[in-house]
UniProtKB/TrEMBL annotation:
SUPFAM superfamilies reported for this sequence: Chaperone J-domain, HSC20 (HSCB), C-terminal oligomerisation domain
Record's keyword terms, sorted: Chaperone
Record family assignment: Belongs to the HscB family.
UniProt protein name: J domain-containing protein
Cellular component GO terms, alphabetical: mitochondrion
CDD domains attached to this UniProt entry: DnaJ
PANTHER family, sorted: IRON-SULFUR CLUSTER CO-CHAPERONE PROTEIN HSCB
InterPro entries, alphabetized: DnaJ_domain, HscB, HscB_C_sf, HscB_oligo_C, J_dom_sf
Record's keyword annotation contains Ribonucleoprotein: no
Length: 200
């Protein structure tokens, strides 16, 4: 995680009357950035988040730390605004949220990490072949629909894994979700006769 530095002398120029709390820029956790000082009951480091609440908190924090506000250090506000943006983008999407939660628990997913379940791996390869063999937009649309349902189901199982603190299952499901999301991107960009490229 990127660590920002700030001149401590500038903190005295930071008016507490215009903000509800101070966000430390060093080692700030994304959940704290968006939920500290809010009235929501979201538990710390929860996978299940309300996108509506998340967006409301994001807009509220951006308003609090807007660089053009009076009585706020401009450099600090710019860095804080950037941190708030990154926190929001990370927590908004289930895949990046899962990767972040695993990182908080000391588990990193490398690009080379792949699916170890042989049955699941065959299912993923079959989906790829279906996309490669598609001849019409109708076929691709149906594939995206079916894949979307798989994404929803995997996200639900991922939520249960985090709730049960089953980090090994959470890691495997995150790898699966990454593949499904990449397949959706490839299907979205599908063109007749063009090679199918799926990022891993």
């Amino acid at each position: 995680m990127k660590v920002f530095s700030i001149n401590l002398r500038n903190i005295s120029r930071f008016s507490t009357s215009t903000t509800k709390f101070y966000i430390p820029l060093c080692d700030s956790k994304y959940y704290s950035v968006l939920f500290q000082g809010s009235d929501t009951s979201t538990p710390p480091h929860a996978f299940n988040l309300s996108n509506t609440t998340l967006k409301q908190n994001y807009l509220s924090k951006q308003k609090q730390f807007h660089p053009d506000k009076p009585n706020i250090d401009h450099d600090y506000a710019l860095q804080t605004s950037s941190l708030i943006n990154k926190a929001y983008e990370t927590l908004l999407h289930p895949l990046s949220r899962a990767v972040y939660l695993l990182e908080l628990n000391g588990i990193e997913i490398a690009e080379s990490d792949s699916i170890h379940d042989s049955t699941l791996l065959m299912d993923m390869l079959e989906l790829r072949e279906q996309l490669e063999d598609a001849q019409s937009e109708e076929e691709v649309t149906q594939l995206r629909h079916d894949n979307g349902q798989s994404i929803q189901q995997t996200t639900h199982l991922l939520s249960q894994a985090f709730e049960n603190n089953d980090l090994e299952s959470a890691k495997n499901l995150t790898i699966k979700l990454r593949y499904l999301c990449n397949l959706d991107v490839a299907a979205r960009d599908w063109q007749p006769g063009a090679p199918v490229v799926i990022q891993h």
